[in-house]
């Protein structure tokens, strides 16, 4: 198996070393692991691409590259140039330092890399390690991801929906709970949630020269979310797996809005998006 790995924490991030270990196990002795990762941290860039300026790419070692761009740029560099003679069988993005469950998914460069791979028609999985009080004292805060990552990916490869004939190919968002490896209770398929009362905000700062700046600050990652959602199952000790696609349409609202705006009898004949429980929305 030929695997491409990337991340948003940067080429020297410890989570990328964890992912390299996972990918090497999955690829096997006859496989290949390629690394194309941002030269510097790109947390929070989402699915950003460097559309308006060029991206420099540096070869650090055989099959190992750093790009001065986003995770999506890294995937594009691999697909369009570095691996064009033999595209990857699987793209893995992470392992992120911190969770990408709930509303965090909308900002995540880790997910942005997996999303770009899916848009390129490649199987892709984003992986993130939830951090919390029980991981703070560990020698390896990525212990849960390191121990359980390969097994979870194998399960997805065997049982996930990898068909590519949809308008938007599925990719998968995996979050490991904020626990030591031995404390992980299992795996649950869960929809994306949203933490209640926890939002991103700003912290203003005045420099000594009087100029105004601000820091972006996240909300509490321990805040509760809807029961059964990715956040909730992570905080309950489970690995969460969430199928995603690059389609922001609210399919449940299409027909009602069409009838209201276009008149009686109007109906949208778009295919419904499957929900985690098997219903459509």
Automatic annotation (TrEMBL):
The keyword Magnesium does not apply. Its cofactor is a divalent metal cation. Residues 3-196 form the Survival protein SurE-like phosphatase/nucleotidase domain. Signal peptide: none annotated. Nucleotidase that shows phosphatase activity on nucleoside 5'-monophosphates. One of its GO terms (molecular function) is exopolyphosphatase activity. The gene is surE. It catalyses: a ribonucleoside 5'-phosphate + H2O = a ribonucleoside + phosphate. Belongs to the SurE nucleotidase family. InterPro entries: SurE (IPR030048), SurE-like_Pase/nucleotidase (IPR002828), SurE-like_sf (IPR036523). GO terms for cellular component: cytoplasm. This is 5'-nucleotidase SurE. A divalent metal cation binds at residues 8-9, 43, 96. Keywords: Cytoplasm, Hydrolase, Metal-binding, Nucleotide-binding. It is found in: Cytoplasm. It is an enzyme of class 3 (hydrolase). Its main location: cytoplasm. Binds 1 divalent metal cation per subunit.
